[in-house]
Amino acid sequence: MKFIDEAKVFIKSGDGGDGCLSFRREKYIEFGGPDGGNGGRGGNIYVQGVKGLNTLVDFRFQKHFRAKKGVHGAGRKRNGAAGKDIVLKLPLGTQIYEDDELIEDIVSIKKILLFEGGKGGLGNTNFKSSTNRAPRKITLGEKGYEADVVFKLKLIADTGLIGLPNAGKSSFMKKLTAAKTKVGDYPFTTIVPKLGVMRKGDSEKIIADIPGLIEGAHTGTGLGFQFLRHIERCTSIIHILDVAEKNVVSNYKTIRNELKSYNVDLKNKPEIVVLNKSDLLENEDIKKVKKSLMKITKNKIYIISTITNDGIDELKEVILRMGL
Q: Domain end: 136, 153, 170, which one?
């Protein structure tokens, strides 16, 4: 299923039905009086979060949603039926914007009324009084509410994997979860965020693999910019670094600066640092890299290899305890 995390759609709730102008006409009944029924309300627009859905692809081609109109009232005091409602199914974590203003944040499976349908009009029966026995007054149904809205998905995950391209995030993701991530010996193997669940006994963590960030990502450079917002919902961060790179410290600073520049709150999220590809260096060289990192960060640093599985089991235990 193609990953789409933003969609613009037109939505309109149903118009209310008109009230009816009618008088009772029956043989042998003189002055039957008004009997016009009320119009039905227009259909409502609801939104509802769905577990297991992590794309807005359903809104890529269908972009117009109109609820049904209410049925007009009729004689013999018959009220019109209400228009059929529409329920839009959205991934958990979807935010709904109208004119750049956030109007709903879908974080549960509870059905939420987004736009109410127009009220039905009143038939002339409602205007009968002691001084007006034959009212010819009715009201028309109210118009439904219409708007162009934007859906923006921010994946809900416990932990986000971040790092430069080719740091080994996808390989690490496969060690933690059963997610089918693409792995290759070249940058940007991950071009869309991937979700996976890491389980151990009764404990589980939802992991999000975020496409590789590069310098300038917060300004739109590279693939990571459009996916930076998915990190905002993560409660913690796992920062993957290639220990065999020449400028590990510089690489760490680059990603931290991108997070801070995009949203200053991201730098305050709990973070652990993971030095991957330890099988490519001698222990002494790895210790030097770790010591250099310890000078610029107080976060815990772990050393692993997704090839030899060194350090993986220990790190799994750490991840399960993160955020508790």
A: 153
Domain hosting 100: range is 6-153
User: Which CATH number covers residue 71?
Assistant: 2.70.210.12
pLDDT of residue 36 exceeding 60: yes
Phi, psi of 63 (to 5 degrees): -120, 5
| Same-domain check for residues 104 and 243 | no
Q: What is the C-alpha to C-alpha distance for residues 171 and 294, in angstroms, rounded to an integer?
A: 25
- Give, as one character, the DSSP assignment of residue 229: G
Is residue 143 included in any domain, yes or no? yes
Pairing of strands 203-209, 194-200: antiparallel
Is 218 contained in some domain?
Answer: yes
In the chain, DSSP assigns E strands to 6-12, 45-50, 64-66, 86-91, 94-98, 101-105, 111-115, 146-153, 159-162, 194-200, 203-209, 236-242, 271-276, 301-303
What's the pTM? 0.80
Q: Above 90 in pLDDT, residue 106?
A: yes
The answer as to whether 1 is a domain residue is no
Q: What is the pLDDT of residues 146-156, one digit of tens each?
A: 999 999 998 88
Asked if residue 146 belongs to a domain, the reply is: yes
**Model pLDDT for residues 163-219, shown as the tens digit of each residue:** 888 888 888 998 888 766 554 444 444 547 788 888 877 788 889 888 767 555 445
